[in-house]
């Protein structure tokens, strides 16, 4: 399945984990602690050169000034081992009010947490990070250098070389495990509200989904059936009137209006929750959306079977919103939709050859899609440079199909 964190990645099959980028991402994450190592070494040198008192005063001043940049750096490098972005409590809300007051309180609390974490990172954590990296790199390399040591023959050094090779995968797991644990500590201290935000989003999406299905049932079983009955009665009434008479002409016009209203209602019901998605699955629903798009769309969606319902619904609305954006904003001549199950994850890509420049903050619905995808532990990435082309890629963990 698609791993969101380094800790989740180490639960995958060994071959999949070792071939992935997670060991390298974890190594890069730990190597970033060299910044803290430099700060600690500068403090030690100042204490030796200028005395403990002056060095301590300088260190306290430096920590006070650099706490916020250090916390921002920690949140930035967290993305190496945790795909979910860490919220920044220092981003001010756009409007005053209760939300602004609450954000101010959270910023005050976050500053103290950041101060404490910076002190711990500079004094302790960098030693653990770089110590783990040193063990992961130098011990296997030292053993693998056995055949080339002048004190032993190449034959005598072969067992050491083999032991070094065997230690490389083991230490890849150790590096990823420690990087994942350190990331959990960092997120718990510097972004403690993120997990609750994700849970709140999930509750909202579930409530919205239940309400949307209720509306779809009411429209399908109520208003649509009444319009069908009205259309049939108008058609039967036309048969009792002389052809070409004024009353027959007005009744025919009313009959056509009823049929148009029924068609619009069916289109509305399809938008609320497409029946083809429920009956035939994601592949057929994507073909249905693409077939109704004013821009020609090439569809290449091949799935082995039905997916879990939440994943199908999320993927369907990603494609629907992307198709709507292509029709409204892209000025594209052609679009495409690609979908596959790859290594336990549903991979969807929607693109076009339009003018590009898509901006999630411009009200195109992309930020809402990102929230919906985040609820499923998925990842949404957008590439839309000015001039095009635009490509929207979604990866959603899908451990099994139904």
TrEMBL record:
Stretches assigned to the Putative sensor domain: 29-190
Give the InterPro entries listed for this entry: HATPase_C_sf, Put_sensor_dom, Sensor_HK_TwoCompSys, Sig_transdc_His_kin_sub3_dim/P
Q: Where is the Signal transduction histidine kinase subgroup 3 dimerisation and phosphoacceptor domain?
A: 211-277
Q: Which GO terms describe its molecular function?
A: ATP binding; phosphorelay sensor kinase activity; protein dimerization activity
Task: Return the protein name.
Answer: histidine kinase
- Report residue spans for region: Disordered: 380-402
Q: What is its EC number?
A: 2.7.13.3
Which controlled-vocabulary keywords does the entry list?
ATP-binding, Kinase, Membrane, Nucleotide-binding, Phosphoprotein, Transferase, Transmembrane, Transmembrane helix, Two-component regulatory system
What residue ranges are annotated as transmembrane? 27-48, 54-73, 115-138, 158-179
| Reactions the enzyme catalyzes | ATP + protein L-histidine = ADP + protein N-phospho-L-histidine
PANTHER family this protein is in? Answer: NITRATE/NITRITE SENSOR PROTEIN NARX-RELATED, NITRATE_NITRITE SENSOR PROTEIN NARQ
Organism, scientific name = Acrocarpospora phusangensis
Query: Where is it found, in Gene Ontology cellular component terms?
Result: membrane
